[in-house]
């Protein structure tokens, strides 16, 4: 991926990258597709329409949140 770094400097844009592990995500998706039960890891579940509340909960340490799930669909 290319980026115009000149705009980042001249407009003083704060740029943050992210990194995901290339192999682990494939393994995780395979396990989930095979029915791995991750329910015990979840502390909160929100429907997609409550996404803002989900992100607020995930970012608030006082809620005791660990893994917050946004539920999409049925």
Provide an overview of this structure:
The protein has 74 residues and is α+β, with helices and mostly antiparallel strands. Helix 3 links the parallel strand 1 (44-47) and strand 2 (68-71). The mean pLDDT is 88. The protein is built from three helices and two strands. The chain has helices at residues 5-10, 22-33, 51-59, and strands at residues 44-47, 68-71. The protein has one domain. A two-stranded parallel sheet has the order 1-2.
What is this structure's SSE topology?
Blueprint lengths: L4 H6 L11 H12 L10 E4 L3 H9 L8 E4 L3
Parallel strand pairs: 1-2
**N- and C-termini, Cα separation:** 35 Å
Query: What strand line-up does the widest sheet have?
Result: 1-2
Which H/E pattern describes the elements? HHEHE
Beta-strand fraction estimate? 5-15%
Structural class: alpha+beta
**Quaternary status of these chains?**
single chain
Total strands:
2
Task: Name the features.
2 strands; 36% helix; alpha+beta; 3 helices; 74 residues
Summarize the structure.
By secondary structure, the protein is an alpha+beta fold. Helix content is 36%, strand content 11%.
């Amino acid at each position: 991926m290319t980026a115009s770094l000149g705009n980042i400097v001249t407009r003083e844009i704060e740029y943050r990258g992210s990194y995901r592990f290339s192999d682990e995500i494939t393994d995780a998706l395979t396990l989930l597709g095979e029915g791995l039960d991750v329910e015990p890891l979840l502390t909160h579940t929100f429907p997609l329409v409550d996404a803002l509340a989900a992100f607020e909960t995930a970012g608030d340490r006082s809620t005791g949140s660990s893994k917050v799930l946004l539920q999409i669909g049925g």
